[in-house]
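Researcher: Structure prediction, please.
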Amino acid sequence: MPLFTYKALSSGGTVATGEIEASDRPEALRVLDKRGLQPVNLKESSKQASPAKAGKNARKKETAAPPKRKEKSSEISKEEEIPDGPLKLKRAEVILFTEELSDMLGAGLQLEPALRSMENRQELGSLKAVSQRIRTIVRDGVNFSVALKKVSPSFGPLYCSLAAAGEASGALDTILKRQAHYLKTLAELQSRLILAMIYPAFLVLVGVGVGVVFVTTLIPQLTELIKSTPGGKIPFAISMMMAFADFVKSWWIVITLAVIGGFLFFKAWKDNEANKPKWDEMKLTMPLIGAVISSRFYVQFLETMANLVGNGLPLLRALELSRDATQNLSLRKKLNGVIDQVGDGRAFSKAMIRSGTFPPLLIDMISVGEQTGKIDQSLRRAAERYDKELDKDLQRIMALIMPTVLILMALLIGSFAYLMITAIFQTISNLGH
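Model: Predicted structure follows.
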């Protein structure tokens, strides 16, 4: 029977080494798991077990054959229940996974036992399969962030980059807790946005319906009435509207295809790797949306930096990991400039000034942290401040949606009503003459 040499961590945190006999690598991993050991390195030895020892082990297997075969078959059936290929998760499931794992890691559990505990939880549903797959990969010595990428695309590049930063700094539980908070905030924002858009969407639908009725029914009837009236003259605005309606009726297929083609062209341009930095830069300059994207970047960047620096990582390494967790390519390019300057010996605050990306107040707070030697605390205070700014920006956008839609609908319906009333009065006036 093959021999496997191992190096593993015990539950007490000590390093254990030795050799075990197993028919294959998965069985060797299961043996270590039963002993409460977390493998760091496991490889097959070139030596083989002695015949006497092998015979002894064979006799042991014969005497205990029924329960061992049952145990092995149950484990195999358990593994067969796990589907192959990437596993898709809903956002609520990603949030639940992140919260559960961060709580267990914060309570002192190591990563592999925490994942095994989640795997045994009946109420977690499909997350049991995710936990089992991740634990299997991590047990083979692969990084947690890499395991996340392999198991499910639902975690996303930002999530995996932050997990890698947490592993590098030893603050995985804190990073995951922050990420859970961020995902919950994003889910709440989308929920609030959907609720806030129900009434405006209803108003838009009603306004469009009223406009269609005006253009297709009421205004044509009115124009026929005006034409049949002696001396009747159709107002210029109504003539233009009818001409536009006739144009749409005649060319609606071409217009629809042009709109669809324009959308597909824009999407292809936006998704092109060469154009992504330009598109990311354009998003930062959009009214209202640009401020939200910038504030969210400041919060994420500052929180990540505070956690990494606070856990003892050098400033330059913390900047590199924070850059990798930034999805906006335009902002990532600016961070590359900051990293180059800090690597050349320039102060962090001075490098931020030269980048031209960060606001003066943020730079002043970080400069104070550099002078006092408590830069992690300054970063955390700045993150809290810009988190409040982000919330204000979102509330401002939500507050502007309703009045903006009401004003647009009032202008649309009011314009139609004004044209109709003007035309009617003009017809009455012509009849009087």
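Model: Residues 52-82 have pLDDT under 50 and may be disordered.
Researcher: Thanks, that helps.
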